[in-house]
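Proteins fold. Shown next:

***
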Amino acid sequence: MIVLASASATRARMLKEAGVSFEVTTSEVDEAPVKARLLAAGAGPREVAEHLAEAKALAIAAPPGALVIGADQTLDLDGALLDKATDLRAARDRLKRLRGRTHRLHTAAAIARGGKVVWRTIASPTLAMRPFSDGFLDYYLACSDEAAVHSVGCYYLEGMGAQLFDKVEGDYFAVLGLPLIELLAALREHGAMAR
């Protein structure tokens, strides 16, 4: 049995389209205090993503032998962690801040079994946002509606958000929110899928 400890429709869609049979049980990890504690201790965006992915995997009480997948993604702009925008106005400010600059997405995944993390990985693609005009930004936000606030970077690369970029380096699936190829290999290695 495989359990996805995430409410992310994108992560669930990726697993489903890859042919993985799984159940969704949303993790109740309160991210804000965990992030605050980690950042106060000197952790960077990468470490925050790793820790949260593991915490989410461990937070689910699954049946014996089940594999629980936890995942998290942080946005790293010059070493600073940026959280999700709270509304479209904040999304506009976020995109103006990212415009013409390069940032990283740290996408961590972990698998827990029997209350222990048995596998973990992280991918950190680099994205260079083009210097788009204010007019394009207005158009993009009008077309995106509230969807822009559901992603840490205020974009979905698999949709119109692709128009925001000049260059993307690294794992495409990790940009979407899950290092899928490595995760599939781990699920096979742990006997949850055919080899």
Summary: The first strand starts at residue 2 and ends at 4.
